[in-house]
Amino acid sequence: MLSLENGAAMITGGGSGIGRATAVMLAELGAPVAVADIDGDAIAETAAEIRAAGGEALAVPVDVRDKASINAAFDTVEDWRGPATILVNSAGILQVEPFEDFSVESWNRVLAVNVTGAFLCGQRAAPGMKAAGYGRIVNLSSISGFRAGVGRTAYGTSKAAIAGLTRQMALELGRHGITANAVAPGATATPMTHAAYTEETRATLLPMIPSGFIAEPEDIAAAIVFLTSRQARYVNGHTLPVDGGYLASGMLQTGSLSV
Ligand code: NAP
After folding, report:
1. For strand 84-89 and strand 239-242, is the pairing parallel, antiparallel, or unpaired?
2. What's the CA gap between 180 and 228, in Å, rounded?
3. What is the CA(39)–ligand 1 centre distance, in A?
4. Ligand 1 lined by 29 (C-beta under 6 Å)
5. Which of 80, 89, 152, 255 is the most exposed place for a label (fewest CB within 10 A)?
C-alpha cells in the first residue's frame, strides 16, 4: 500500500504517454494532480479523465523551455493546492537525425526540452518542497541514456545528462526530505514511439527485450509512482531502468543453448 504526501503532484508532459499514465495513477492514489503540458487539448482531456474517475486534477499549460511559463504554471498550482511536493519531469521530445548531419538547431531543441526543462522545473519546485520538508522528484531518462542508438545524438546525450542532473538534485536537496530519482524506460508504446518506430524497428527490438514485449505507459508509471511515494524515502539519486531486462542482456540474446 503506497502512500503519498498530501500536497499536489505536478506532472510535466502529463497530457500524453508516460506522463499521462502517471497522472492518472497518482490521482487514483489520491493525489491532487496538476497536468502540465505544452499541448492544451491534451491537458484538458487528461484532467477531464481524472475528474470523471473521481480524482482531483488541474490542467496547467506549460512550456518547459521557458522559465516564465514554468513560474506561471507553478504559481497556478500553488494557488490551487500549495507547493507541489511531487514533481515528475516527463515532458520530452525525440528528434532522429544521422550524427554527421545532426543540426545544432535540433540539438538545442532536444536539450532545451529534455534537460533544461527538467533542470528549471526542479529548481522552481525546490523552495516549496524545502518549505514542506518533503519532496519527490522523478526525471525521465531512457535506455538511450545508457546505450547509443542510430540517430539519437541529442536524445541519447540528453537522457545521459538526466542521470547526472538527478544525482545533483539528490545531493543538494536530500537534507530537506527531498529525493530525486530518474526512471529510464525501455521501448514504450506512446505517441512518441508511435511516430518514431517502424514495423522494422519493432521486429528488431522485440528479440532484444528479455520480457518479450514493448511496455505500456502504465508499466513505466508504476515505477514512477513508487519513487514518488513516502515509502521510497531512502531511494535517492538513482536512475532505474524499467526496460523488460533490455539493459541486463548482452550477446547471444536469443537462440539455443548449444555452443
Ligand atoms: P509523449 O507521448 O510524446 O509525451 C511527451 C509530452 O511532452 C507530449 O505531450 C509533448 O507535447 C510534451 N512536451 C513536448 N515539449 C514540451 C515542452 N516544451 N513543454 C511541455 N511539454 C512538452 O512521450 P512519452 O513517450 O510519454 O515520453 C515521456 C518521457 O519519457 C520523455 O521524456 C521521453 O523521452 C521518455 N522516454 C520515453 C520512452 C518511450 O519509449 N516512449 C522511452 C524512454 C524514455 P507534444 O506532443 O505537443 O510535443
Report:
1. unpaired
2. 9
3. 11
4. no
5. 255
